[in-house]
Amino acid sequence: KAGVTQTPRYLIKTRGQQVTLSCSPISGHRSVSWYQQTPGQGLQFLFEYFSETQRNKGNFPGRFSGRQFSNSRSEMNVSTLELGDSALYLCASSLEGADTGELFFGEGSRLTVL
Amino acid sequence: GENVEQHPSTLSVQEGDSAVIKCTYSDSASNYFPWYKQELGKRPQLIIDIRSNVGEKKDQRIAVTLNKTAKHFSLHITETQPEDSAVYFCAASRSNTGKLIFGQGTTLQVKP
After folding, report:
1. Please, which pLDDT band fits residue B95 given cuts at 50, 70 and 90?
2. pLDDT, tens digit (0-9, with 9 covering 90-100), for B6-27
3. For residue A42, which residues of chain B lie inside 8 Å, CB to CB?
4. Cis peptide bond upstream of A8, omega within 30
5. B110: Cβ contacts below 8 Å, ≥ 6 apart
6. In the 3-class helix/strand/coil scheme, how is chain A assigned residue by residue?
7. What residues in B contact A49, CB-CB < 8 Å?
8. Is B17 helix (H, G, I), strand (E, B) or coil?
9. Degrees (nearest 5) of the Cα angle A35, A36, A40?
10. How far is Cα A95 from Cα B33, in angstroms, rounded to an integer?
11. Which of A45, A51, A104 to mutate to test the interface with B (most CBs of B within 10 A)?
């Protein structure tokens, strides 16, 4: 079956702009979570959506937001970009949530903010 | 808040030796502890996991142990091979939160 697909894979933005990242989970998976990966901070939890509802949110400012559609596809948005937002953004899907079993990660969207 | 501390940050071993990575979690309600392996330029992949009602779990050359009282869990890799070289992440989660808290990662280098 198809894996988790993230688009775009690479993008370059300038400070102050906004960006939208997309994630298509594995068919049948209802949970989609987002993580920010940076060399110094590892994998940091952004938020998780289950059946279109945000179930949990990490310690990120309100500039980071997301949503999930009825087909389980998810998007995350970062507004007013800062240099420190440069990172690899990973989406992961699972059947029922991170606490119930394996997370399947996408290849990530690498964001560079200039 | 929830936190997972992972040590060491880097680990270098000779091929055939054992490697041990240790993690400590802060949320006593955590009940699920997976380990992910991320090879260079690739996505993280689950290698083994353990739940709080189990003290140890093995899968061929890898094993995980959990000490709930001390809030510690560890990954043990025996007979290491060069293809074990990667970054390993421990993580912790509690039921019905959808939230996985990762450790900072351990870069394991296995020298041939």
Report:
1. confident
2. 999 999 999 999 999 999 999 9
3. 89, 102-105
4. yes
5. B12, B13, B14, B15, B19, B80, B81, B82, B83, B84, B85
6. CCCCEEECCEEEECCCCCEEEEEECCCCCCEEEEEEEECCCEEEEEEEEECCEEEEECCCCCCEEEEECCCCCEEEEECCCCHHHCEEEEEEEECCCCCCCCCEECCCEEEEEC
7. 98
8. coil
9. 135
10. 17
11. A45
Q: Which long-range contacts (CB under 8 A, 24 or more apart) does A59-65 make?
A: A59/B1, A60/A36
pLDDT digits (tens, 9 = 90+) for A1-43: 689 999 999 999 999 999 999 999 999 999 999 999 998 778 9
Q: Which residue has the tokens 């060069």?
A: B82
